[in-house]
Design goal:
The chain is α+β, with helices and mostly antiparallel strands. It is about 35% helix and about 25% strand. It has two domains: about 80 residues, OB fold (Dihydrolipoamide Acetyltransferase, E2P) (Beta Barrel), CATH 2.40.50.140; about 90 residues, no CATH class. The protein contains seven helices and five strands; from the N terminus they run E-E-E-H-E-E-H-H-H-H-H-H. It is globular, with a radius of gyration of 20 Å.
C-alpha cells in the first residue's frame, strides 16, 4: 500500500507479507460459524498443528465442505498473511469411512484428536508424530482395535513429544489417562 508523502516529502511503503503453502494433513477439529466461514484445526505433515479459516465453504456451490470433515486426510493449499492462515484449495486423500460407521472407533478417534489438539504446539513441525498418527488412524480404520491400543499410542506420543520418559511410561503405576488429564488440565471422556 502506498501512502501520500508526509511533511518531509518521503513516501512510506507498507508491505503485507503474503505466502502460499501446500501440505497434507488430518482435520482435528472443525467449527462452523453462522456466516459462510469455518475454523479448522489441521495436523499437517510439514508445519504441525495449524489453525486456519476457510471462507465460503458453506455455500451450496462449494466442493470443499465435504473434504473438511473431522478425521479426513487431505491435501491442501493455504495462504499466510500476517500470521492469519486462510484455506485455499483442498483435495481429499482418504475419508476413513469405517471409523465413522463404528461408534466405538469414532470415540477413540475423537479422544485422540482432543488430546492432539490440546497438546501439539502450534506451527511446529512434528513429522514423526504426524506419520505415526496417520498410521494409527489407518489401523483404527481397517482393524478391530481396543481402548488399550490408544493407550499404547498415547504412551509413544508422550515419550516422543517430550512430555515423559520411557522408564516412567513403562512403570506399572503409570496411568496414561491420569497423565493426559494432568497435562490437559481437565478430565477426558471415557470410551465405555
Amino acid at each position: 500500500m502506498l501512502l501520500g508523502p508526509p511533511a518531509g516529502g518521503c513516501f512510506l511503503l507498507l508491505v503485507s507479507m503474503f505466502h502460499t503453502h501446500s501440505d497434507e494433513g488430518i482435520i482435528l477439529k472443525k467449527t462452523l460459524y453462522p456466516d459462510s466461514k469455518v475454523r479448522l484445526n489441521i495436523f499437517s505433515k510439514t508445519f504441525g498443528k495449524l489453525n486456519m479459516t476457510a471462507y465460503g465453504v458453506k455455500k451450496i456451490t462449494s466442493r470443499r465442505l465435504a473434504h473438511l470433515e473431522t478425521g479426513n486426510l487431505i491435501k491442501f493449499t493455504y495462504s499466510d498473511r500476517d500470521s492469519h492462515l486462510s484455506l485455499q484449495e483442498t483435495e481429499i486423500i482418504y475419508g476413513y469411512s469405517k471409523i465413522k460407521d463404528d461408534l466405538q472407533k469414532l470415540k477413540i478417534l475423537y479422544l485422540l484428536f482432543f488430546i492432539l489438539q490440546k497438546l501439539l504446539p502450534e506451527s511446529q513441525s512434528e513429522e514423526e508424530i504426524y506419520i505415526q498418527t496417520k498410521e494409527f488412524i489407518k489401523k483404527l480404520n481397517n482393524k478391530p482395535l481396543e481402548p488399550h491400543d490408544l493407550e499404547e499410542f498415547l504412551g509413544w506420543f508422550f515419550i516422543h513429544g517430550g512430555y515423559v520418559d520411557e522408564k516412567t511410561v513403562s512403570s506399572p503405576s503409570f496411568s496414561i489417562v491420569s497423565f493426559a488429564e494432568e497435562l490437559i488440565g481437565q478430565k477426558l471422556p471415557r470410551l465405555i
